[in-house]
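User: Quick sanity check before I run a bigger batch. Here is a single chain. Can you write out its predicted 3D structure?
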Amino acid sequence: MTIEVKICGIKTAQAAAAAVNGGADYIGLNFYPHSPRALSPKQAHALAAQIPARVKKVALVVDADDATLGEICAAVPLDLLQLHGNESPERVARIKALFGLPVMKTVKVADAGDINAAQAYGLIADRLLFDAKAPSSMKGALPGGNALVFDWTLLAGRSWPVPWMLAGGLHAGNLAAAVHASHARAVDVASGVEDKPGVKNPAKIQAFLDAARAL
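Assistant: Done. Predicted structure follows.
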């Protein structure tokens, strides 16, 4: 089967080229100011100019207000907004109406109960993304990209009205197991192709994309 791949948190031209040349379907541009992967709208504009139209450009935001979203959308030609915070279904609907872009809502998972939230979002968002929820005891935890995994089998056999992606601690070495356990048809990686938070390794990007193609 064909697995779609999103490489998230791209910050440099070198990393973008590795993702594009390796066959990534999506490139994620991170606008969460506290993340080591964060870009300004100006930086993202320059980076997006190198990304061909066939690769979808995704803006990751966390509880962003309308003004911030407006600045990002004005600066960067985007294909998708990824809402990675605590946005309510009503907020998701408002963002879609205001900015006219497809929206992917992240659902953070620690146990089976967390997945139930996906149903309400699946009626409004255009895509869902399931990511690992950081425990409250984790110091310095980010909204995502913490290299944490959850029980992938929680997703197996489940369905929603819209397509979904799997994220959370994925890398070339565990991708096949994650896809087999979850039945995911699309995956998202950030920390798993880095040497340290925010520093992408082109070789790891290529290895992840090769692993996805092998599926």
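The first strand starts at residue 4 and ends at 8.

User: Great, the batch can go ahead then.
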